[in-house]
Amino acid sequence: MGCIGNTSAERQHPSPWCHATRTRIALALCFVLAPLLLCAQEPSPDDLRKFARNPFANVVKLPMSPDIYFGSGTNRRTAADLQIMPLIPVRISPGWLLIPRIVATVVTYVPDLTRATGGKLGFGDMVSTFFFTPEHVSRFVWGVGPALLMPTATGSVLGLGRWGLGPSVAVFYQSESVSGYILVQNIWSFPASTDRGPVRQMQLQPMFSYNLPCQWYLTTNPTISADWTQLSSYRWLVPVGGGIGRTFKIGGQPVDVNLAIYNNVVRPASQVSPRWQLTLQVTLLFARHRKPRLSSVGANHFVQGAEITRNQ
Asked: What is the largest CA-CA distance in the chain?
């Protein structure tokens, strides 16, 4: 759902929208979108459902996810963001793929929780995960690699303001009718002379989907997060919910769309985190010239996962 976020949203320190900031955003967008130019060739209808939901398929994907977060703070403010999350597989040797996954928050709005109106709008942090995974798979697939947190936010309340690094591990299973995975990731900030607090955050992301007729499916993909710098009563954010999605084509372009709603049944005692959230994800699929890597059975749905979640 969200990438790594600020743990003290109540602190509002304005940041000027300077030329350097605009240049940083432009470079980040070029870094995210340029590899998509390598894609071509329309996938067959038979392959579409298989690789649309497989996080380790050798197919370039461009997920776009506008999310809305409701009921933050005593004034029950609403936050929102728009993320783009390209998955760009690269064959690094016979039998092995490197799958960089970039989670860029291109627009985020964080309300001022001390007031009934007002907030900050800008660019958020970016998290890039680099999965190493076997190219030839069956029912079970796994991927492992580092995750890098980059402080690209244009305001202090819009991001953590720290560089960070940590491991990421995912295990994926698929059959003819169901699929699921579990992803675990933890990021620690680098030592630095800064007034921003340290980052020690974990993400646990379970996913389950059930295939329905006519390319429809049911799905749940909550992002459970823990901030290890906080006391236990302020540490956990646990959403519960789910939604529905469908894989289809628009003018020949393969698209996967799903809509889900989650209630945060466990959230920090400070009540800063939202009470519930609405998540929409639209994923464009681009097949390679060579045959994409598909599992021999079924499919899986990989929603905005491998990033540390927006926090409390």
From this structure: 57
For residue 311, pLDDT beyond 50: no
- CATH at residue 76: 2.40.160.40
Rounded Cα distance between 115 and 76, Å, is 10
* Average pLDDT of the residues in 197-217: 92
Phi, psi of 195, rounded to the nearest 5 degrees: -85, -5
Residue 23 in this model has a pLDDT that exceeds 90: no
Q: For the CA atoms of 262, 267, 271, 275, what is the dihedral angle to 10 degrees?
A: 10
Its pTM stands at 0.77
Considering the domain boundaries, does residue 14 fall inside one?
no
For residue 131, the enclosing domain spans 19-286
Distance, in Å, from the CA atom of 53 to the CA atom of 253, rounded to the nearest integer, reads 16
Please check whether residue 226 is in contact with residue 209, taking contact to mean a CB–CB distance below 8 angstroms. Answer: no
